[in-house]
Design goal:
This protein is mainly beta. 1% of the residues lie in helices and 34% in strands.
């Protein structure tokens, strides 16, 4: 079966139930509630050589991409995927969830542990295959578990199970998500915390803060419009804009968090959206950035943090607020880089004596969207453990990104004027294992031979900004711009 990977999931509208306390907001997840757990600095149900699961390895003395410890520990998870109806923002929607949770379950491990996830595909009405991707991990010895159907594996068929087993070979904050069609935009996603060495002290690990746009309006052609914006699966929706018969409840609950005055809080920011690029801030509080993706960086202070889709940033926030005050947490989708209908997501932060029933009255930091759609300057984001590529890469490739409307009326992405087509029954990794030497142009394969470093020059000729992601590689960007008409140069190890 040949499929168009650019084609999005078609939502099949079956009769809608009413919005209730059972399906309002984040289903069975505690994320974004005052009952959500905080996280320890590492898991202790394992050997602790020299007091830590990773022994004497530190941020400063170890290249994490080459020296993951072998802890001898496996963390087991069981995921059941199924369709359901929930109202994350009060507007009822068909979604696909893991274990009836949105966001999905937290995967937690120590650096060097193995993670084993049994995936049970119960997606029916209609039935669909699936595959899960473990974002950012190198998968050095297990590329077949990287989770992209038609590339690494065949999809997990409905009514069957598949077990992923891979090492937590990097440490920090990340997420897992479906990589089949647009299933993750329908809810198949969740955070991943891999504990490792730290280089900046903090007192409380608040855990994942998932920022994600939401398609409240079901579409079948292309996800470009962000109809709402959520923090840990919660926000409210303006029901006066509803033009169908689906139930909608105004003033849906927002996410809530607790801060302690005088304590330093670690927040693990994750942009798990489909399109929206996020600008995150907390009223009246500075943030110290300590990591981007799986890379610890020299700490620096910021009032706002920009996250492209798939990016993660770890920040530490000192509890400097008043003990009886509540403060707004904000995440805004760029109205220049994206097409949001409701760009602002809000959550509440309460100090110990604050009334948790009140709404904050705080004001945001001044911020002007410059339309560059990029992260902080590279001179700010200096890795603690620097990795330098060869000054002259073995090979250089230029890639042009653009869009076209195909024969079915769907807008699709292209690389060098070629849209990707994959065969779900013949994944490319399998063909390579069979020493296949004939690559169809529609597979968009770039042959690097035995190169240890290649340079990619990516030109965005599309009409909107676009995030570039190279899985299972260490990336060393030369520029960070990737708005419409811009160029990104990066070296891949």
């Amino acid at each position: 079966m040949v499929v168009n990977i650019a084609m999005l999931l078609t939502y099949y509208l079956y009769p809608f139930t009413q919005v209730s306390s059972q399906n309002l907001n984040g289903a069975g997840s505690t994320l974004g509630t005052l009952e959500a757990p905080s996280f320890s600095k590492f898991l202790t149900s394992n050997p602790l050589p020299d007091g830590y699961p990773w022994g004497t390895r530190t941020v400063e003395n170890t290249d994490p991409s080459k020296a993951a410890p072998h802890t001898g520990v496996t963390r087991y998870y069981n995921f059941t995927l199924a369709r359901t109806q929930i109202a994350p923002d009060g507007y009822l929607k068909n979604m696909i969830l893991v274990n009836d949770q949105f966001p999905g379950p937290v995967i937690e491990a120590n650096w060097g542990d193995f993670i084993e996830v049994q995936v049970n595909n119960n997606i029916y009405g209609p039935e669909e295959g699936t595959a899960l991707h473990w974002h950012g991990l190198l998968q050095t010895a297990t590329p077949w578990y990287d989770g992209v159907p038609s590339v690494h594996q065949c999809p997990v068929a409905p009514g069957t199970s598949f077990t992923y087993r891979f090492q937590a070979d990097l440490y920090g904050t990340s997420w897992w998500h479906a990589h089949y069609s647009s299933q993750y935009a329908a809810g198949l996603l969740g955070p991943m915390i891999i504990h490792g060495p730290t280089h900046y002290e903090y007192d409380v690990d608040i855990g994942p803060i998932i920022l994600a746009d939401l398609e409240s309006i079901d579409r079948t052609n292309w996800l470009q419009y962000s109809d709402n914006n959520l923090i840990n699966g919660k926000m409210s929706f303006d029901c006066s804009t509803v033009n169908d018969e689906r139930p909608c409840t105004n003033s849906a609950p927002l996410s809530k968090f607790k801060f302690e005055r005088g304590k330093a809080h670690r927040l693990r920011l994750i942009n798990a959206g489909a399109a929206g690029q996020q600008v995150f801030s907390i009223d009246g509080h500075d943030m110290v950035v300590i990591a981007n993706d799986y890379v610890p960086v020299r700490p620096y202070t910021a009032k706002t943090v920009f996250l492209g889709v798939g990016q993660r940033t770890d920040v530490v926030v000192k509890g400097t607020g008043e003990v009886d005050m509540a403060y707004w947490m904000r995440s805004n989708i760029s109205t220049i880089c994206n097409l949001p209908r409701q760009p602002q997501a809000l959550a509440k932060i309460f100090y110990g004596e604050a009334d948790t029933a009140q709404h904050p009255t705080t004001e945001p930091w001044p911020y002007a969207d410059n339309g560059k759609c990029n992260n902080h300057d590279l001179n700010l984001t200096t890795p603690v453990y620097a990795i330098a590529p060869n000054s002259t890469p073995a090979k250089t490739f230029e890639i042009i990104i653009d869009q076209q409307v195909n024969a079915t009326g769907h807008l699709e992405w292209r690389l060098n004027q070629q849209a990707f087509r994959g065969n779900y029954n013949r994944p490319l990794l399998l063909l390579a294992q069979e020493t296949n030497q004939i690559y169809n142009p529609e597979w968009n394969i770039i042959e690097t031979g035995n190169s240890t470093t290649v340079r990619l020059i990516i030109n965005n000729n599309s009409s909107i900004s676009h995030v570039r992601y190279v899985g299972s590689h260490s990336s060393l960007p030369r520029k960070t711009k990737m708005s419409s008409g811009e160029v990104l140069t990066t070296d891949e190890l």
